[in-house]
């Protein structure tokens, strides 16, 4: 079983910064892409940023130029550096990973979420 532990959320003023972390553990065979989604009450969970195994990245338009995703494949860890935070960034942020087992079996893995609140 693969688990993701996400952390780093909190309360920050507009214009502030936060750094989210996510560490994978358990029986990890191969993690391909890792990323972050966010969700506000009553809305669907939206992709924020994703990083592939070759370190190519993609971002939601709303966060381009402000957020940076990075990873350490050896440590099964991914980070999300969030700068110039805005009130509309307020959400619960979920870490995500594409995991493939030894038999090539695919499973999506989610963290439990970390809450980010941007408010003065």
Structural descriptors:
120 residues; 7-stranded mixed β-sheet; 4-stranded antiparallel β-sheet; 0% helix; elongated
Judged by helices, strands and strand pairing, the structural class is mainly beta
Identify the quaternary structure here. single chain
Intertermini distance:
40 Å
Radius of gyration: 14 Å
Principal-axes shape call: elongated
Q: What's the number of extended β-strand segments?
A: 11
Q: Bin the strand percentage.
A: over 45%
Helix content: under 10%
- Give the biggest sheet: 7 strands, mixed
Can you write the helix and strand succession as a string?
EEEEEEEEEEE
Overall pLDDT = 95
Model regions low in confidence, pLDDT < 50 over at least 5 residues: none
Any chance you could write out the topology, listing elements then pairs?
Elements: E1 2-7, E2 10-12, E3 18-26, E4 30-39, E5 46-51, E6 57-59, E7 67-72, E8 77-82, E9 91-100, E10 106-110, E11 114-118
Parallel strand pairs: 2-11
Antiparallel strand pairs: 1-3, 3-8, 4-5, 4-9, 5-6, 7-8, 9-10, 9-11
